[in-house]
UniProtKB/TrEMBL annotation:
Listed GO CC annotations: cytoplasm
Pfam family membership, one: DAHP_synth_1
Catalytic activity: D-arabinose 5-phosphate + phosphoenolpyruvate + H2O = 3-deoxy-alpha-D-manno-2-octulosonate-8-phosphate + phosphate
InterPro entries assigned: Aldolase_TIM, DAHP1/KDSA, KDO8P_synthase
Annotated family: Belongs to the KdsA family.
Alphabetical list of SUPFAM superfamilies matching this protein: Aldolase
Enzyme class: transferase
Annotated metabolic or biological route of this protein: Carbohydrate biosynthesis; 3-deoxy-D-manno-octulosonate biosynthesis; 3-deoxy-D-manno-octulosonate from D-ribulose 5-phosphate: step 2/3; Bacterial outer membrane biogenesis; lipopolysaccharide biosynthesis
Compartmental location: Cytoplasm
Protein name, as recorded: 3-deoxy-8-phosphooctulonate synthase
GO molecular function: 3-deoxy-8-phosphooctulonate synthase activity
This protein's UniProt keywords: Cytoplasm, Transferase
Gene name of this polypeptide: kdsA
NCBIfam families reported for this sequence: KDO8P_synth, PRK05198.1
Organism: Salibacter halophilus
Length: 277
């Protein structure tokens, strides 16, 4: 789909191989993080799918000050660095403020701009100036073709290491809807396109710890739809016990289900490639 290929560690985003971004939503205790990384390593090596390990040291958009926001940058980056050394994964994490860009870039390979911050010029430009890949998440309030605007802000620094991620449009109240046309329109911008499947099924306004705060039953059909539409990568948050997760408990995938979830998507991607060519 993409015109430009982006190198992230030993992964080439935008070539003919579907890639995965996966990990717990937010960094929790070290044992949980290492256990998840071990399982992701096992599954992705078995299925031969490249993976970028994702987890956030800070979630600054929780709906209550009483909810867990993460361990903070210093401790979070320490845990991510340990995961990288032990498992060899390229790493991705969110940043929310411009002064987080450089220290995060010293550890991770991809700086992710949250969807609701994608038009924040200073944040996006500071991330781009690090030279690291920037994963720009599609704001729920933007038409997909308008993602060319924040993309151009990154390009203005000379950085063309860009990934664009779809995670749904706000539709009515507290619901997100995926429009497959967005994969096509964002693909025309020229960079690898990723489908964030697990965030697309969140029910906003309902606490993520509430079982009704997500619609997991739609994960397989949405995943197949996105891959059939030609995305370059998929984003699936996973956890050893989602119901006990400290963030997005209602939408993360149980890591023991990851292998079976990925198998049809990999097969479908091979079919889609034939039609693409």
């Amino acid at each position: 789909m993409s015109k430009f290929k982006v190198q992230v560690g030993d992964i080439t985003a935008g070539d003919d191989k579907l890639f995965l971004i996966s990990g717990p939503c937010v960094i929790e205790e070290e044992s949980t993080m290492m256990r998840t990384a071990e399982k992701i390593k096992e599954v992705t090596e078995k299925l031969d799918i490249p993976v970028i390990y994702k987890s956030s040291f800070q979630k600054d958009n929780r709906s209550s000050v009483d909810y867990y926001m993460g361990p903070g940058m210093d401790e979070g980056l320490r845990i991510l660095e340990k995961i990288k050394k032990e498992f060899g994964f390229p790493l991705l994490t969110d940043i929310h403020y411009p002064d987080q860009a450089k220290p995060a870039a010293d550890v991770v390979d991809v700086l992710q701009i949250p969807a609701y911050l994608c038009m924040q010029t200073t944040l996006v430009v500071e991330a781009a100036k690090t030279g690291k890949t920037v994963n720009l998440k599609h704001g729920q309030f933007l038409a997909p073709e308008n993602m060319a605007k924040p993309t151009a802000k990154i390009e203005s620094t000379g950085n063309k290491n860009i990934i664009l991620t779809e995670r749904g449009y706000t539709f009515g109240y507290n619901d997100l809807v995926i429009d497959p046309r967005s994969f096509y329109d964002m693909g025309k911008i020229g960079y690898p396109v990723v489908f964030d499947i697990t965030h697309a099924i969140r029910k906003y306004g309902i606490p993520s710890s509430d079982p009704s705060g997500g619609a997991r039953q739609y994960l397989p059909v949405l995943g197949r739809a996105g891959v059939a539409a030609g995305v370059d990568g998929i984003f699936v948050e996973t956890h050893p016990c989602p119901s006990d997760a400290l963030c997005d408990a209602a939408s993360q995938l149980d890591m023991d289900q990851l292998e079976e979830f990925l198998k049809p998507l990999i097969e479908l991607h091979e079919v889609e490639l034939k039609y693409r060519k």
